[in-house]
Amino acid sequence: MSNKYDRHYPAIPLRNVTVFPGMVMHFDVSRKKSVKAVEASMAADELIYLVTQRDSQVSEPGIADLYTVGTIAKIKQIIKMPGKILRVQVEGLEKALVNRFEEASGMMLADVSVMQGFEKPDKMVSRAIIVGMRELLTQYAHVNPKFAKDTVKRWLSYNDAEKLMTEFAQEFMMDFDKRQQFLEAEDYEQMYTFAATLLVNEINAYTIKEELGNIVRERVDKNQKDYILREELAAINEELDGGTITEAEEYEADVEKLDSPQYVKDKLKREIKRLKSLAGNNAEANVERTYIETCLELPWNVSTEDNKDIDNAAKVLDSDHYGMKDIKERILESLAVRNITGSGKAPVICLAGPPGTGKTSIARSVAKALGKEYVRICLGGVRDEAEIRGHRKTYIGAMPGRIIEGLKSAGVNNPLMLLDEIDKISSDYKGDTSAALLEVLDSEQNVNFVDHYIEMPVDLSNVLFIATANDLSNISRPLLDRMEIIEVGSYTANEKFHIAKEHLIKKQIKENGLLVSDVKFTDKVIRTIINSYTREAGVRGLERQIAKIVRKAVRELYKAGVFTSDGTRDKTVKKTVNISDKNITDYLGKVKYRPDKKNTKGEVGIVRGLAWTQAGGDTLEIEVITMPGKGEFKLTGNMGDVMKESASIAVSYIRSVTEKGRYKVDAEYFQNHAFHLHIPEGATPKDGPSAGITMATAVLSAVTGIPVRADVAMTGELTLRGKVLPIGGLKEKLLASKTAGITNVFVPRDNRSDVEELDTEITEGMNIIYVNNAIEVFAQALMR
């Protein structure tokens, strides 16, 4: 066979595919070099060289990974698919031998020599090929009934050896390396040799398979057809090495090695005995296998040793979280008690507070400090009791509950298990989820926790449970009684500043693939982001804003040439993106929030109240106006039922006060006037009793015409007799007041102990006025 020199062609390495001259087929292209080759081919004469990889698993093949014979093909059609994939249709033209490969312009080029077609065999050789192929194809069709009858009939009808061998090489099911042999063949006689060898091997394989099937059928009862596959495997193993270990024997060996109580081993042995009596592939046998494997994977007596170094735990907690003094102290106290008593039992800690305040991350840090495995179980939206206790294994699709799954994934029986969003669980007709959690969290009961699927007591006493919640009012009282509540309050602006500077900025720079030297934030701009672009109790929104800035910084560094198009850093280019007050709007846009500020002067019927929200504290103005009417009282501002009741109490109390002559109001004033009480930001729902004293002061001011001081704010629940009752969320409310520049705050006297527990950072510069009743508030808040 002679060769003639051709020219360079763009080349594409193919996986598991060999293209022959005259063949039309399509394949997908996704590698960058191959895409470049397709584009170069279409820009020239639409010709391309297709060569098969020796190993289809190699993602970036080199010259040594490719065969030396391929096919020059013409590209007929290109379709762009999702994910930057090209579907290319080609027609094979000529077989070609590679002289050399080279890489240029981001693609592979092949210098090839076109190989001339085979010489036509003489009549005797052609006849021998046809007779031999007919005999072998007939035998193969007999032992393999699945072989297409139409294809066999067509091939047996051919009298042209060239056509028969060409179609056989292209269409017969074979591995790509076998098909490559046909492409590299030097003549039709060699192709016949390859085909005959392939067919003989296939015929022998099907014959042996049939013999093994006969051996199996002699052993198995005719009514147990589903057992044939398993017995075939046993017969094959006997032919190979004289014996095999059954599945049940493997389970029995695993049970003997299992570190568990004796009752667990006894139970598993009974289940294995039952498995032996079941047919191999029926549904009940599969249930038994899944159950046995699940029990074998549980860490019955496997545990890790806790890190007892209290100083190390303190360092870990301090390095991961800023502030949170009470929480850290409680964790360290628990560790100290564990070291002394050696007992793993401890009250379940529930971290309660607004979103984004670090409840979940503090649990992860505790696991890190104690050297425990960490498992997070999200309970948000769980309303089926079986999610906790598991399903009976007799049900279709039965599985263990989340607690057992958590133990299995941890691999030890003493992990730290975080029950996240425990206040978001609910109940329906399938059972009470919170009641199912009682056994999990009660230290007196969880020693013998029974999951419906496992059906054996599992000791949970060594598990350190930590729960998180946003709103404790949504948790049932019995469940709440099992937990020790630690309040995770809102962060002060100073705490947010330190968290951002020491943790969030470094974290986002690392996650976005930059170095600390690439992006610089000034202290002033960090405070601007906190005050002008976020309004929240935690720092989740703050982290999102920082991430947004860092992503834009990555784009700037790309444009400056610090990174090349493939993401590689060019160390010769130096640039730092500086974020300051002057350019912050380029990254985050216009200011989103402007803090509420106190009024410049006192006004009639307007009083500043304090509110707690899930996003932290806030101030709200309560406005009251009077007008001629017949005693009507109108409420607006999206108030809940409790707040409407507080407004009604406030009006009733003011009527009782003025009618007794303490303030100069005509006796018939309320019968001749209408009242309208409004709380701005009407789209925001508001509820709670703590605005009672604020409403009463606003009503009294509107009725008497006496202005209310602009530099005061107040909070407290009001009774019909004028008592000011204590309220919650005081930390958040004082922070909101301080942000608004209001330093004089009226607080119920019974909240004095709550104020004393606050950090001086919050109370510094504040004039907190403790009051018992509304008269004390009126005396100091109204301008006389």
TrEMBL record:
CDD domains: RecA-like_Lon. It is an enzyme of class 3 (hydrolase). It catalyses: Hydrolysis of proteins in presence of ATP. Pfam families: AAA, Lon_C, Lon_lid, LON_substr_bdg. One of its GO terms (molecular function) is ATP hydrolysis activity. HAMAP family: lon_bact (MF_01973). Homohexamer. Organized in a ring with a central cavity. This is Lon protease. It comes from Lachnospira eligens (strain ATCC 27750 / DSM 3376 / VPI C15-48 / C15-B4) (Eubacterium eligens). The gene is lon.
